[in-house]
Amino acid sequence: MSSTPSQPGQPAESTTLLSVQDLQVEYRTRRGAVKAVDHVSFDVSKNEVFGLAGESGCGKSTAAHAIIRILKPPAYITGGKVMFMGHDVRQMNDMELRRFRWRHVAIVFQSAMNALNPVLSVGNQIKDVLRAHTNMKPDETHERALELLRVVGIDTKRLGSYPHQLSGGMRQRAVIAIALALNPEMVIMDEPTTALDVVVQKQILQEIRQLKDEFGFSILFITHDLSLLVEFSDRIGIMYAGELVETAPSQEIFNSPRHPYTHRLMNSFPTIWGARQELLGIPGSPPDLITPPSGCRFHPRCELALADGTCKQVRPMLIDVSSKHRAACHLVEQQLAVQKETVP
Amino acid sequence: MRFLVRRFLFYLVAAYVAITLNFFLPRLMVGDPVQVMFSKFQGRMDPRAVESLKETFGFVDAPVHEQYFTYLKHLVKGDLGISLTNFPVPVSEVISGSLEWTLRLVGIATIFAFSIGMILGTIAAWRRGKFVDTLILPIASILAAFPYFWIAMLALYYLAHIQGWFPIGHGYNLRLKEDWGDRAYVSSVIEHGMLPMLTVVITALGGWMLGMRNNMINVLAEDYITLAQAKGLSDRRVMLVYAARNAILPSLTGFAMSLGFVIGGALIVEIVFAYPGMGFTLLNSVNGRDYPLMQGIFLMITLSVLAANFFADVIYVLLDPRAR
């Protein structure tokens, strides 16, 4: 599963912004260590939208939080490397970390409802990040706060409003405004639209796209909604039970998913256009990560699992399906081997 | 602002109801309490005291509504009748005499206990599981579990009686005259107040601290705390403006309630230390069956609880924009 950025299929070194290598995160519980993120590697290039998808509890949020080191006990990073623009995030001390976060990487949280301090006005929550990182004078921070509100489409009169006075969509916009305050190179978006209704969701995603094109930041987008991700992101990584099982450009994931789990996940969503088809869903439930299944973690739920027991015993590695498409599945390995034989 | 006006009107109505109940309750009693008391004193009661009593309770030969209006009229003038045990001093004078002692002792002690409790609770939660927390937590739990009178008597016995570090009782050295211009008097008041205040603060502290620590721990798990930290804000700002300011809100109501009950005096403190405050006066009035005084004190307690609640609303509005 380990990979280095120089492998084929990876973006060239110069454009790589974030490189996560063999990241491991554990939740230390009384019952034992939960391996929430297990040897996960991926890169995000400049100006790219990389989507991370998977069921609840697959470790996608944990991985994202680990990248900017905001995990709280009992979660601990136990291995791997997080390189951001050539800097090793895991080696940073408190001061360096404080400067690194927000100036370079900002995060937008899952629930906008709880991401804002209820007793501080929106304006003050934008200004305090400016004050913490820059030497701006009060009137400059004020100007910048107004500008940010304009950018995300909130009426500037709302500067003095408190979070409870804003609608869900406006709150999420305010959180995005806070994230963009320092023009970061990358914004991690952890289910930014999950709490919103579909219409507002669409609007906000469009606005995020526009903002991204305007300011040129990369996005690490985390969601359980694969259909949304296919539309929104350039590349997608699918996580299952703490592991990255497939990465590919969005269209390729959509048109020809290779991992059985991805395939099932694609079939879990109805399409608005196109033929009516039965939703398949995925039988069974996500495994217990204290004692994960042997071999391929998906094998107990996989109807295609090989009869010879390979899937149960051998852990599959991420292998190149094509130059930009990688999957971790014994079936894919076999198919590729067959292809090689038939096309000598 | 509209919220505060609404609350104020509500408390005004509540106060009126309390005052009215205060008038009607004695009337609902079987028989005439004045006659009962008169017989208890076996005729040794001053006729003027009987008159005063009758007037306080409104047992005069007039229609009820007239009595009621007389009662209200007297109340507005601050006339609560004549105290029986301190005859012929008016109730209002007795109350104002003891009120200042209580306000000073219990009021300051309550504010101190609350403030220190909030600060320690904040720090303990912030450094949860660290040394400070593991040190403060058991001490606070033990203190909060101790019965107050036990600590008070222990302190009185050991620190005042055996060691002689503090005076045994009363609000000031009785050989001095009550004169705030006199340095000796002031220092005597402080000296006499120290031990009772210390015992009140120490026992009340634990509860406030534990409450604040729990609230803080809940708030610290909120997303906006993680976001504030990710924003690169200073620990100080995250702890005070993001965490503590939200965590303190649930404690405010309790604080206001305890401020309201300050007027009732910390009954046990004042009894143990023979401190001349409202609690001590209430005890004396009950022992002496001084109904006018009791009634006056109860009315004061009711009104002060209402006032304290209004005060809590004001603070709430200042600290929590959602209440505005």
Short characterization:
The complex is a heterodimer of chains A (344) and B (324). Chain A is an alpha/beta fold.
Quickly list its features:
heterodimer, A: 344 residues, alpha/beta, eight-stranded mixed beta sheet, four-stranded antiparallel beta sheet, 12 helices, 12 strands, globular, B: 324 residues, mainly alpha, MetI-like fold
Could you please describe the fold and organization of this structure?
The complex is a heterodimer of chains A (344) and B (324). Chain A is of the alpha/beta class and 344 residues long. Chain A has helices spanning 60-67, 94-103, 112-115, 122-133, 138-152, 168-180, 198-215, 226-232, 250-255, 260-266, 310-313, 330-342, and strands at 16-29, 32-45, 49-53, 75-84, 87-88, 105-108, 186-190, 218-223, 235-240, 243-249, 319-320, 326-327. Chain A contains 12 helices and 12 strands. Chain A is globular, with a radius of gyration of 21 Å. The relative contact order of chain A is 0.14. Residues 1-13 of chain A have low confidence and may be disordered. Chain B is mainly alpha-helical and 324 residues long. The termini of chain B are close together. The model of chain B has no long low-confidence stretch (mean pLDDT 83). At the A-B interface, helix 2 and helix 4 of A face helix 9 and helix 10 of B.
List the helices and strands and how they pair.
The complex is a heterodimer of chains A (344) and B (324).
Chain A: E1 16-29, E2 32-45, E3 49-53, H1 60-67, E4 75-84, E5 87-88, H2 94-103, E6 105-108, H3 112-115, H4 122-133, H5 138-152, H6 168-180, E7 186-190, H7 198-215, E8 218-223, H8 226-232, E9 235-240, E10 243-249, H9 250-255, H10 260-266, H11 310-313, E11 319-320, E12 326-327, H12 330-342
Parallel strand pairs in A: 3-8, 3-9, 6-7, 7-8
Antiparallel strand pairs in A: 1-2, 1-4, 4-5, 9-10, 10-12, 11-12
Helix pairs in contact in A: 4-5, 5-6, 6-7
Chain B: H1 2-28, H2 33-40, H3 47-57, H4 64-76, H5 91-126, H6 131-145, H7 148-162, H8 183-220, H9 223-230, H10 235-247, H11 249-260, H12 267-272, H13 278-287, H14 291-319
Helix pairs in contact in B: 1-14, 5-6, 5-8, 5-13, 5-14, 6-8, 7-8, 8-10, 9-10, 11-14, 13-14
